[in-house]
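To whoever is on call:

I kicked off a structure prediction for a single chain this morning and the downstream step that reads the tokens threw a length-mismatch warning. I double-checked the sequence; it's 292 residues and nothing unusual in it as far as I can see. Pasting both halves so you can look.
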Amino acid sequence: MRVRIVTDSGAQFTSPLFPQQHAVTIVPNHIRIGSVEYLEGVELSAEEALRLMLRDPGAVPAVMPPSEAEFAAVYNKLAAEADAIVSIHPSRSLYTSWENATAAAQQAAGHCQIVVIDSQSLAAGLGMLVRIAADAAAQKLSLDEIVKVVRGAIERVYTVFYVESISSLLHNRLISASHAVLGTLLGVKPFLTLENGCLMPTEKVRSRIQAVERLVEFVTEFTDIEDFVILQSKPHAIESTRMVQERLALEFPGRAFPHAMYYPSLAALVGTDALGVFILEETPHRAVSDNL
């Protein structure tokens, strides 16, 4: 069965070449910074977005996911060569991609089977699920099997963020004004976790050293990790990222802990100075077989 995988440009992969190598179709988000609108990943790179955001700190980017018409055009084009399409999108609690894709799928349903999945994740977590779908499609699994594998993996993706600047969180109503004022008065910064597709503050820390400790504690709760990445706001490893990597290297000898710069669509949510950890936990049967 010829199954094609679709997602939007918010999905982030360990290897930027993964979509081309695995025939994953990326539909770009629209990012508006100030009065100018860009296509994410086409007209606006992560580095350029950071430069524009730092130049005008008051200009919080607006993310406009692909429209129903844009998704429909992609589905109709792929339907000419595919028997089915699996379209995977960031949490519907954070973006409207899933809603637009669902409406577009209903338009194109007569051409081929289309399943639209809410990943309940974002950024690298979304990318991990897209990779799982692409791998399953490459193994020639049926549509039902691919969907089952992806939906089963959603519960194995874990995400936590340390956020230095709270202006974007306040703008996106991820924290209340009272929490923002209290945090400023006490000199504390929020930790966010992604639970059931929602970004929620869970605790606060006073320094980056404490943030590193919390991030390391979070990762070491897992004994079997299938995939991992640290997302940061700079192209090269910042000090906090290096500290996390060094600590984790002691806890997990021989394992790599890659990092990458997060995309504009995530920067619009968490700002220009956040540090996030994304983990895909091993399936129990795979972890057992690997240890035999």
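Update from on-call: the warning came from a stale cache, not from the record. Cleared it. Sanity check on the structure: The chain has twelve helices and 13 strands.
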